[in-house]
Amino acid sequence: MKVDPLSRRTLLRLSLGVWALPQIALADGVRVVTLFQGATDCAVALGVTPSGVVDSWSEKPMYRYLRHAVQGVAHVGLETQPSLEDIALVRPDVIVASRFRHQRIAPLLAQMGQVVMLDEVFEFKQTLAMMGAALQRQQQARYLLEKWQQRVAQLRLQLQVTYGDRWPLTVSVLDIREDHIRSYLPASFAGSVLSELGFAWTPAAREARGVSLKITNKESLPVVDADLFFIFQRGDGEAAQRSYQALVQHPIWQQLRAPRQGLMWRVDGVAWSLSGGILGANLMLDEIARVTAGEVAS
Predict the structure, then answer these.
(1) Are 46 and 132 in contact (CB under 8 A)?
(2) Going from the N-terminus, what domains does the chain have, and what CATH number goes with each?
(3) pLDDT tens per residue across span 220-274
(4) Strands 181-184 and 171-176
């Protein structure tokens, strides 16, 4: 049963260190709780089934691509508001958390297990490396990162051959929502992968700060103008679909380079925006390879 905020008795027990664990040598039976999506992804990639996970942002309660791996695993609340009581019931050895989301409750988490605190939820390589060290899966983490580098190098070469003299293409990653558009920047999860592949960014994207630009009116669409668009939608209801159709039929949209050149690709928003881990990043590579395979160099 989830009770948030914690009962006074539970807070007292935590503050007195009733659940504090001694330093232990982590073994194959380590119990790990993951408090953000990328940590769940990376745990599965490392061959570790978490003992507790937070709910996914969409496709609830867990993203479809991870469901088979975490079937039957306890859920411990939301990424933005995990249930400390439910975490305690799992009796974790290791808790993987995000400094941005969980710094306030870090002292309480530390009473329940070893806390691995990540600075960014979408820095998937750092998440993988730190979790590999904490879970004694360093060899597996190194292997996954080496395979990643190989895949990136291979796909980068494929893109160079495919687009010839046009390479590197400028790119925009667009999240079409009911009332606005999000254009993801180089600092975002998807942006970091595209940059590693060698895609270029428009001046507006390079100069902007943060992980995304919010476009609230169609007159601002030239800000996202690029050679190629990767597009996904947050939600698949009728309202979202109407928003997308109204967008692609707008005269300003039709004058942008990617629509004129036919270089617009619909992709999976979970992998591109919400996954935050090495498995999600590899799903991105799969989609990029697939949608660009039919292109012919000029």
Answers:
(1) yes
(2) 8-138 (3.40.50.1980), 143-292 (3.40.50.1980)
(3) 999 999 999 999 987 666 777 888 888 999 999 999 999 999 999 999 999 999 9
(4) antiparallel
